[in-house]
Structures are given as structure tokens and as C-alpha cells.
Design a protein that fits this description.
- It catalyses: a uridine in mRNA = a pseudouridine in mRNA.
- This protein is an alpha+beta fold.
- Strands 1, 2, 9, 10, 11, 12, 13, 22 and 23 form a 9-stranded mixed sheet that branches. Strands 16-15-17-20 form a 4-stranded antiparallel sheet, covered by helices on one side. It has a 3-stranded antiparallel sheet with strand order 3-5-4.
- Helix 17 runs antiparallel to helix 18 and helix 19 runs antiparallel to helix 20.
- The chain starts with 15 loop residues before the first strand and ends in a 5-residue tail after the last helix.
């Protein structure tokens, strides 16, 4: 984290120099669950045993309200890499089959283009994995099972829908149908022809009427069709043997993952390959640092406790350990945590300026007391933007908001310093534009890049092909880049707010409202009705304090401050060409409503121990709410660049 990017601090102590993350052991992170328990605590299983196996939706919602972060802070990367699931040879044969079928359908004889066998899969669960992965990568294919053999062929339903909508829309629609995620909605592009909309309504109702319902709506004089999953019938039905067998397959196993020097998604990809499931079968509350030892709760779908424990030795070879393994009734949700506990060591301590080591103890004490009592500016940390990357995520997000699809793809494939395979593949694509050759170079574990390259190979690298490329990635990944841009704007807004309006709540500021104290839990996401605008009388009487001030994350459903900061937001967005932005990227099915984030955050349960003999070091422990960054807290303490 460079100090010049986050230059406004809340306290005026002098701070000191130091380095963090000299080794993973110097940066230990442990999730705190919604019951206030550390997820590596022996009490975790006991606490979960007290939870009803199937809590009511109302109770689940109440718990989420207490722990939900201000936005999806985390990247939720699903991966359906057929190279891993089918093997390179079969995956290449499938690519050849689909390319020939799509590019030159008239040149294929009926036998050649009718079906392709993917081989036999005696295990029912593995067959399900293959079906899901093939359908995700090739929505225009139909997968069928003959005993234990899986065959693929062209899907006539996809072909029919493609004649009514674009192929890109058809692909996204069939992914939506296959996912069957409760509460989700699919929206077709605006269509001015009532007759054409009727044809789409009829197709969807005829083929998927038992699963979904359709409705037309008009927004700004443009009419679109929305498709919504029907609610499951509340009427009890007679259970069949097949129902019982399916229920046995659909089980959830919770565990605590300890990982060292691994990214969360990298760890998931490896565990998924070992267990024979998809990375999307894992759910978690948040992403954890790579250069650290981290403990986090996870849930895996369709894997029993015994199956998970059977793979412990393979996980350990990759720097992962699992504990607290137990059956549960549902997956985890993003943000379903109270916060994180940090156990950190800062090394190479030395005072700023001309101070000697004898004064270090007083400098550390002053810094720790200030942050303990006053907190820190709640900036988004560098990992939010892709720390260390040549092109950071917020730049990609800006290009997407401006619908500059080709530019966004080039940014996505901008290589970092290094000569490893993934950077060679990225350089090759930027130099040649050859997605097929770049795909061959890209390592199998780089799931996002491989999905993008596969789509670009199939549809080309023009505007439409780039749209298809982005649509090949999961929705959570696409929207992450937009959130990253909005986070960058939030950070800059926080600096401007403190520099121009000072360190007290002033007229026009937004504050939390709605509780007896006028405050809300710092981890609760706020909607517009809960936001109050400070009046001149309230400023005069110091009704609100700075730690009650919130700043909006840009979006289409937020209120902006009614003072200098509100105008700053408008000017800042206009500077990036977003003056009239509606924060929707229709071709990519993305919408950013925005939310609110507290200007300040405060560490809890903070303790520290200074060692001055031999090599000076400082050990610190503290707790932070979800979506707050330890590196930002340390920046306030040290008033120094962190390396």
C-alpha cells in the first residue's frame, strides 16, 4: 500500500517504519463466525451443534443482517474447466466437435455432427459434474446418458431460442436455467416488437413453463422480458426412491480450512480436482490473504465428511489442512461472518526521522493508543484492486462501465512482470490476437483466462466476441471488476471528504440512522431509507460524530452527500466519462445499485507487545469487522509505506 494513494489519516502521531508479511507466520488471519467464535476454536463444532439443522428463513435473514458486508467484497469464482474434468485429449476432441458443428454445419455429415461420446463414467456423481461443466461451457449442447456413457449433441431448444434472440442471450439463458439458483432473474434485451416478445414468451412457457414464469416490463420506454424461477410448491408430495437417492447426493459438509501462502480460489481449485467436484460446489464467507496463514470456514456440496477426511494427506501436500469437519444443512453465504481476527508481526522496526531506538517504545505506544481510541479511515485495501498487477481491477471495471469491451479484454490480458506460462500466454494473445494458441499456453489452473480465451476463439475478438468472452465468466466475477472501480472512487472520496470538510460531521453529510442510538452496526449494509442527511442545526449542536458518517459506493440506487462531497462525486465520475452512467452494463447483465460504507473503522480487542532487543519487532493482535482491511489499519498505526 503506497502512502501517497491513501494519504489522509485520522490521527497525527508520528508512527514508525517496519515491514509486514516477511513470512506467512507473521500474518495470521482467523475468521470470526456469526456467533463470535474463531473458526479454528474447539468450540466451533459445539456452537454449530446448537444451531437447528434447518433454521427458518427469517432467522437466517436476521443473522445475515448482523454480518453482511457493504458489498460483495470478495471475488466468487466458479470454474468449469473441462481440461481438468475430461482430460486434455477429450477436451480437445470436444472443442473440435463443437467448432466444426458451429462454424461449418453444412460440411459435416449427419453421423459426424449428430453426437460425440465423452466416455463412460460409472460414478453417478462424476456424471453430474461432467453434465454441468459441459452445459456451462457449451450451452448449445445437450448432454445425454446411456447407462454410464455420456454423449453430447446439438440442443434443438437452444437452436430455436437462437432464432428468437442473439446467441449470447441464449447462452446466458440456458446457464440461468441450468443453475436453478433460487431468487434469480434473467432479463432479455429490450425488444420493441410485441409480436416477437410473444414468440419468446411462448417458447419459454412451452419448454420451461413448470420451472419458470415470464413477464414483460417497461423501463424508460423500453420493454424487456424477465424470466423468474417459480417458487417450489408448498404442497407435500409423495417421496419416491429416486427423491431419497437424490437427497443423499445433495449433502453439505462444513469444515475449517487452514492454508499457507495460497490464494483462497487456488486452494478451492485444487480441492475440487482432488474430490472430483467443481470449484463452484465450495462456498465460503470471504476471500483471505495469500501471503499469510489463514483459517476460514467453508462448505462443500455433495461430499460427505468421510470423503473429505479421506483426502487429508493430499491436501496437506499443498499446504492445506482441514479441521472441524461436520455435516450441515446448507451452503455458506458471502459475508456470513462477524469479522476477522489478526495476529501479526511487524519486523525491521525503526523510528521516522532522527529518533533513536530508545524512543521507539513511546512512538509505538502513542500509535497504538490513537488507533485503539480513534480508529482509522476505512479505505479499501490494495488486494481489492489486484495488488502487484500491472493493470488493476478498477481499470478493467471502468472500461466495462463505459462498455469498451475490446479495451477491457486487452486490460484483462495485460501481463505482469515475469516469464511464467500465464504471462507468456497473455503476451502471445496481445501480440497475435490468436486465442487458440494462447489457450494452449495458458495453465490449466488459470480458469478465468481459459474460459475467456475459449469464448474468444469461438466468437472472435471483436466487440461481440469480447461480450461473449465476458459472459463466459460467472456473474460474480464480472461484477467484481465494477465493484473494484467503485471502491477506488470511494477511497478517493474519503480523502477529499476529510481534507475539505474536516474531522466532524457537517451539514450535508450522510449518517446512519434508524436505531435507538442513531447508529447501526458497522457491518450492516444500508438502504436509502435508513440514511439521514445532517442539517445545519445538527452540525451546530454536534448531534453526530465523524464515526457515524457514511460515504456512498457509486451506483444507481444511492443518495449522495448534499455538500461539497456530493459535487465531487459528480465531477469525479464525469472525469472518467461516466457523467450519465446508469451503472448498468446491459450486454453483460450487470447492475450496480451501490451501497454505503462507514468512513471510519475501529479495531477491537487490540493488544501489542514490543521487542527491542536484537532485531526490533512488534506483535499485534486485533479484530476487525467484515470488509475492513488489516493492511489499512497498519498503515494508520505506522504512518509508513508497507512492503
Amino acid at each position: 500500500m503506497e502512502r501517497d494513494t491513501l494519504s489522509c489519516c485520522i490521527s497525527d502521531h508520528e508512527g514508525f517504519h517496519g515491514t509486514i508479511k516477511n513470512s506467512p507466520q507473521d500474518f495470521v488471519v482467523v475468521e470470526i463466525d456469526t456467533h463470535g467464535q474463531l473458526v479454528n476454536s474447539p468450540n466451533v463444532q459445539e456452537e454449530h451443534a446448537k444451531i437447528p439443522s434447518q433454521p427458518s428463513q427469517a432467522k437466517r435473514d436476521d443473522k445475515l443482517k448482523q454480518s453482511k458486508p457493504d458489498d460483495t467484497d470478495i471475488l466468487n469464482q466458479d470454474c468449469f474447466d473441462l481440461n481438468l474434468i475430461l482430460g486434455p485429449a477429450m477436451n480437445e476432441e470436444l472443442e473440435h466437435f463443437t467448432n466444426k458443428m458451429r462454424a461449418n454445419p453444412n460440411e459435416m455429415c449427419e453421423q459426424e455432427k449428430s453426437e460425440l461420446s465423452l466416455g463412460t463414467y460409472p460414478d453417478k456423481h462424476l456424471r453430474a459434474v461432467v453434465h454441468r461443466a459441459v452445459r456451462y461451457n457449451f450451452p448449445f449442447l445437450q448432454t445425454v446418458t446411456n447407462q454410464s456413457e455420456i454423449r453430447v449433441r446439438e440442443d434443438p431448444d437452444f437452436k430455436e431460442l437462437s432464432s428468437l434472440a442473439s446467441e449470447g442471450e441464449a447462452e446466458e439463458f440456458f446457464r440461468f436455467i441450468d443453475a436453478k439458483v433460487p431468487g434469480t432473474v434473467f432479463t432479455f434485451l429490450p425488444d420493441d416488437s410485441k409480436e416477437h416478445r410473444t414468440s419468446v414468451h411462448h417458447f419459454v412457457s412451452r419448454r420451461f413453463g413448470k420451472l419458470v414464469e415470464t413477464k414483460s416490463f417497461t423501463d424508460q420506454q423500453k420493454t424487456s422480458i424477465t424470466v423468474r424461477l417459480r417458487e417450489r410448491s408448498k404442497q407435500p408430495k409423495k417421496r419416491t426412491i429416486a427423491d431419497c437417492q437424490e437427497e443423499e447426493v445433495t449433502l453439505y459438509t462444513a469444515f475449517t480450512l487452514r492454508k499457507e501462502n495460497l490464494e483462497t480460489l487456488e486452494a478451492i481449485s485444487y480441492m475440487a480436482a482432488v474430490l472430483g467436484v467443481l470449484p463452484s460446489d465450495f462456498t465460503y464467507a470471504g476471500i483471505k490473504d495469500k501471503r499469510a496463514i489463514t483459517y476460514q470456514a467453508m462448505v462443500v456440496k455433495k461430499i460427505s465428511s468421510e470423503q473429505l477426511l479421506d483426502k487429508v494427506s493430499e491436501f496437506e501436500r499443498r499446504g492445506m489442512q482441514i479441521s472441524h469437519v461436520r455435516p450441515v444443512s446448507e451452503p455458506l453465504k458471502l459475508g456470513r461472518l462477524q469479522g476477522n481476527h489478526f495476529d501479526l508481526v511487524i519486523r525491521d522496526l525503526k523510528p521516522h526521522g532522527k529518533h533513536g531506538l530508545t524512543e521507539l517504545q513511546q512512538l509505538v505506544k502513542e500509535a497504538m493508543e490513537n488507533v485503539k481510541n480513534r480508529g482509522f479511515v476505512n479505505y479499501y485495501g490494495p488486494q481489492r484492486f489486484g495488488s502487484g498487477s500491472c493493470v488493476q481491477a478498477d481499470q478493467i471495471g471502468l472500461a466495462l462501465l463505459k462498455e469498451e469491451m475490446e479495451a477491457s479484454v486487452k486490460l484483462f490480458f495485460t501481463p505482469e512482470d515475469g516469464d511464467d506460462l500465464q504471462n507468456k500466454a497473455k503476451r502471445h494473445f496481445l501480440l497475435t490476437g490468436n486465442a487458440k494458441e494462447s489457450l494452449a499456453l495458458m495453465p490449466a489452473y488459470k480458469a478465468r483466462e481459459r474460459l475467456m480465451l475459449r469464448a474468444l476463439h469461438r466468437y472472435g475478438s471483436g466487440q461481440e466476441g469480447c461480450i461473449r468472452g465476458w459472459l463466459s465468466l460467472p456473474h460474480s466475477m464480472r461484477v467484481f471488476y465494477l465493484h473494484s472501480y467503485c471502491s477506488r472512487v470511494w477511497n478517493e472520496a474519503a480523502i477529499y471528504r476529510l481534507q475539505k470538510l474536516g474531522f466532524k460531521a457537517v451539514q450535508g453529510d450522510l449518517v446512519w440512522a434508524g436505531s435507538e442510538t442513531g447508529l447501526k452496526s458497522s457491518t450492516e449494509e444500508l438502504n436509502a431509507p435508513q440514511v439521514h442527511v445532517v442539517t445545519s442545526e445538527e452540525e451546530k449542536n454536534d448531534v453526530f460524530s465523524l464515526d457515524q458518517v457514511i460515504l456512498p459506493m457509486p451506483g444507481n440506487s444511492v443518495k449522495y452527500p448534499e455538500n461539497l462531497l456530493g459535487q465531487w462525486y459528480r465531477d469525479r465520475l464525469a472525469q472518467d466519462g461516466l457523467g450519465s452512467c446508469r451503472f448498468r452494463v446491459t450486454p453483460l447483465k450487470l447492475n450496480v445499485p451501490g451501497c454505503y460504507r462507514p468512513l471510519l473503522a475501529k479495531p477491537q480487542n487490540i493488544t501489542y507487545s514490543l521487542r527491542t532487543v536484537e532485531e526490533p519487532s512488534l506483535s499485534i493482535t486485533f479484530d476487525l469487522d467484515a470488509s475492513c482491511y488489516a493492511t489499512v489499519c497498519l498503515g494508520e498505526i505506522m504512518k509508513s509505506n508497507l512492503s
